[in-house]
Amino acid sequence: MAELMMDAPYRPAALDRSGQGVLGKPLDRVDGPPKVTGAATYASEEAPAGTAYLSVVGTPVGSGRVTGIDTAAAEALPGVLAVVHGDTRMPAGGSNSQRLSAQGGDRIYHLGQPVAAVVAETAEVAREAARLVRVLVEATPGRFDADAETPQSDHGVGFLPTIAKGDLDAALAASMVTIDRTYRTPIHFPAALEPHASTVWWEGNRLTVRSSNQVIGAAKATIAKALGIDASRVRVLAPFVGGGFGGKTGVGPEVILAAIAAEKIGRPVKVSLPRAQSAYLVHHRSATVQRLRLGADAQGRIEAIAHESVAAQNDDGGFLEPVPFGTLPLYRGAVRHFRTDLVRLDLPATGAVRAPGEAVGSFAVEGAMDELAERLGIDPVELRRRNEPDVDPLSGKPFSTRRMVECYDEAARRFGWPDTVPAPASVREGDWLIGIGMAASLRGNFTVKAEARVRLEPDGRATVGCDMTDIGTGTYTILAQVAGEMLGLPVDRVEVRLGDTDLPPSAGSGGSFGAGSAGSAVVLACEDILVELGRRMNAAPDELEMKDGCVRAGGREATLAELTRGEPIVAHGKTGPGAESKRTSQASHGAQFAEVAVNAVTGEVRVRRMVGVFDIGRVLNEKTARSQIVGGMVWGIAYALTEHAVVDPRDGRFVTPDFGEYHVATSADVPAIEVRFIEEVDDHANPVGAKGVGELGISGAGAAVVNAVYNACGVRVYDLPITPDKLLAGLPEL
């Protein structure tokens, strides 16, 4: 096994020396044809013979305890096979990305909490029977309104500690200009297109779970722990996943219920959560209240920055939204204070949703920077240039790579950012007020443990295998490109197998670490194959010229098929974080610019165009990377203007639980979006030199839109989303 932890910078020579030229190219997705022709199977498709269907029964109140469950009416319905309840293995909470929820017991943590499941011959009968189950409860007053609860500062929840560097009050008092604002963001749902679905069956004492899940290695361990069995008896399959956005990083209660039900009836069981029920059984992004304070001198140089927030969690959850995470290394300033307080609520668990921390935290810090620029009469781009740090301003560590200033300049050039920003509400086109805005983007970079197996087959083709998932991000394609580049093969001669825990354990899709981590494991495995090929060619690995399935060295030439000698050459690569992740400050960076139009009569906001330029290390596939960034920017538009999971403070019920009321951005809301990359291979991050992409695009996108809305109409909004009612009173006269 080729194993390399990142204890020092590392850059595989073969990636730069190869003549194949497939890495980084905007190749079409290799999984595109099976997806558009229906050959790609998802979690709820192709059920084994005899599959039954499961529907989850939830609690009718949000706080209290369960005193009994009446199943008589449900069991009497024709087609019902069983009603599962009272099993101590049943999860009491919803899906969470951090750990297994509580099991058994009678306490109610939130409305809709799973307490029973109906299994029937058809999905329709299962749903109808679930409505007939009576859950008897003893209700108690619930905590459903975060503003009515007292935040806790000393809570020990989450991974970000409180940071207090320097005397904040003194620094602010001494500053020439200060900003002190409070920003609010609502609950956000992950809202992936594919439902949370699983098909589960037992073969003897071995359990197979075909599930819509982002991180199946962790899912395997969680399922085994919940059921009290050895992990070797569990196999999880997720070859295709229709989006996740963090909501599928954990194991949902419906998976455990389906496994228990399949065991009970001796048949496979399928479950697919209705959209409205997903609001209660899948974690969401917490609402936040953020106080952002800046102190700067007359030239706009920041002397003090404080980002103090409040986020929520229920009594069963262990996650806390890391609101200031992206602010930590973003701008200069000797005095730095960061804190996230906790409020406990009787709502479904909060968890990691796309870009936890940065997605919502950037709204506050970038809004405050826009206001500071206006107060000082400094161009917003120039203000950010003046506050670009040379080293991480909190830790003092050097940056691995950081091309933030180049991102500002190139994005501004492509957008056509003027030398002088027009005054708010000064540009009109008929009834429409036109404005522009910008924001910085930053997403912390992580490398995690990952393994991969690469087989050079006797026919000269290559097969890559690991339990990594492709949730629509392009994993199949980029791993084929990495292996193709290393071994001198066209992508159509590389087969990639993913989404099976019987394959080597890999990173999973989450935290924007999948491509860099899994791709690096493939690189290391391929390096071992190159060593063996060099031995067979009587040459050193760095003397090999690889292209189109041929190897040249020292005036000799052979095909890969010839060099295998009729037997596959198999190698295993393993990588993970090391000293470099502690020695350097690592992140992906970018700049986003937006132009919007605000109707002076109705307050309607339309985003007219966006431009983003990003620093993501080595670009593995320009097309899939761009797609990821565009998707994040689209979500930024939505969280700025429409997304709002409304909670009824009387009972903890979601008023907007599905796509009928929870408004994500649609094609009509999305303008022309231009995305470009400034590429610099980051050999401190991982062997493949790539940094995170998937969550970078959402970071700062909404803030750019919000700042553009202010420039358009002169109304600055501190409480998202920007709906027309928040603008109407402040709009200028026609």
Give your account of this protein's structure.
The chain is of the alpha+beta class and 734 residues long. It is 25% helix and 26% strand. It is built from 18 helices and 30 strands. Strands 4-6-2-13-10-11-12 form a 7-stranded mixed β-sheet, with helices on both faces. Strands 1-25-19-20-21 form a 5-stranded mixed β-sheet. The longest helix has 24 residues, at 514-537. It is globular. The mean pLDDT is 97.
The stretches of 5 or more residues where confidence is low (pLDDT under 50) are: none
Cα distance, first to last residue?
Answer: 71 Å
Report mean pLDDT, rounded to a whole number: 97
Q: What is the helix tally?
A: 18
As laid out across the biggest beta sheet, the strand order is 4-6-2-13-10-11-12
Biggest pleated sheet:
7 strands, mixed
The tally of strands reads 30
Brief summary of the model shown:
The protein is 25% helix and 26% strand.
Main attributes of the structure:
5-stranded mixed beta sheet; 734 residues; alpha+beta
Question: What's the arrangement of secondary structure elements?
Answer:
Layout (H helix, E strand, L loop, with lengths): L1 E5 L6 H5 L14 H6 L14 E7 L5 E7 L1 H4 L4 E6 L21 E2 L5 E7 L2 H10 L1 E6 L23 E3 L2 H7 L2 E9 L11 E7 L2 E6 L4 H12 L6 E4 L15 H13 L3 E4 L2 H7 L6 E9 L5 E12 L21 E10 L13 H19 L3 H7 L17 H12 L12 E2 L2 E13 L5 E7 L5 E4 L9 H13 L6 E4 L16 H24 L7 E3 L2 E4 L2 E4 H5 L4 E9 L1 H5 L3 E13 L5 E11 L6 H20 L5 E2 L4 E2 L17 E6 L23 H13 L11 H4 L6
